[in-house]
Amino acid sequence: MGALHWRPGEQPFESGGAPEPNSALNEIVVLPTALSAEQCKETVALGEACKSMIATVDRGHAVTYRTSTIAWIEPQPPAHWLYHRMAGLFLEANRRYRFDLVGMADALQYTMYGPEGLFDWHTDLGFGASSARKLSVSVLLNDETEYEGGRLEFLNLSRRDEALRAGTAIFFPAYMVHRVSAITRGTRRSLVAWGYGPPFR
Predict the structure, then answer these.
(1) Is position 52 within any domain?
(2) Which helix (H) or strand (E) segment is 42 a member of?
(3) What is the pLDDT of residues 44-82, one digit of tens each?
(4) Residue range 3-26: average pLDDT?
(5) Is residue 7 in a domain?
(6) In terms of residue numbers, what domain contains 57?
(7) What is the CATH number of the domain that holds 92?
(8) CA 88, CA 82: separation in Å to the nearest integer?
(9) What burial letters (b/e) apply to 137-149, b meaning 16+ CB within 10 Å?
(10) Rounded to whole angstroms, how far apart are CA atoms 94 and 98?
């Protein structure tokens, strides 16, 4: 077999040093007191005041793939406090990930999963504008004791057993495969947002 010959300075994968490790790139960050109980109630009120719609996904998966209702909380004056709080949480969580973030990719998403509601295995990276998502967050707005099922689970990460309280924020890289398991009782309410930035490199 013939050998490949490269001119000086043009060797593939040649760099000046070893890459810097970052184990957080495959981890979640849990902030248990991201929102207070009162702030959770105010967030629910903001979401309930917005026009709701049936959630959809890219490429038209069957309705059994994602069953939930969403509403978009736009950055209008009544929600400014919430946007400021979420921006601060992104800064706090991103100290661990060290992603290059420049803002939020979309308006804040208020999500409701009723009985039999779910969102099967997926990533938050999509097409068009959603391909710029880097860091995702899901903030629980009601206690896990108020519903059954509806666990936020991650592929290849151990399932947690403890029930999470309202106000808990769960951050994770947008490329991590995750799901919300089927609700069997009650309603799960959450606030979802994405930090975006230049393409991964």
Answers:
(1) yes
(2) helix 37-49
(3) 999 999 999 888 765 555 556 788 999 999 999 999 999
(4) 74
(5) no
(6) 32-196
(7) 2.60.120.620
(8) 10
(9) bbbbbbbbeebeb
(10) 5
3-class SS of residue 13: coil
Q: How many domains does the chain have?
A: 1
Q: Which two tokens stand for residue 169?
A: 């924020």
Q: How confident is the model at residue 93 (pLDDT cuts 50, 70, 90)?
A: very high
pLDDT reading at 14 higher than 70 = no
Does residue 172 sit within a domain?
yes
pTM of the model: 0.88
76 in a domain, yes or no? yes
Give the pair of three-digit tokens for residue 188.
């799960």
**pLDDT at position 161 over 80:** no
Pair 123, 175: CB distance under 8 Å? yes
Is the Cβ–Cβ distance between 108 and 73 less than 8 Å? yes
Q: Which amino acid is at 54?
A: I
Quick one: DSSP state of residue 2? P
Between 10 and 144, name the one with better pLDDT.
144
Helices 37-49 and 80-97: crossing angle, nearest 10°?
120
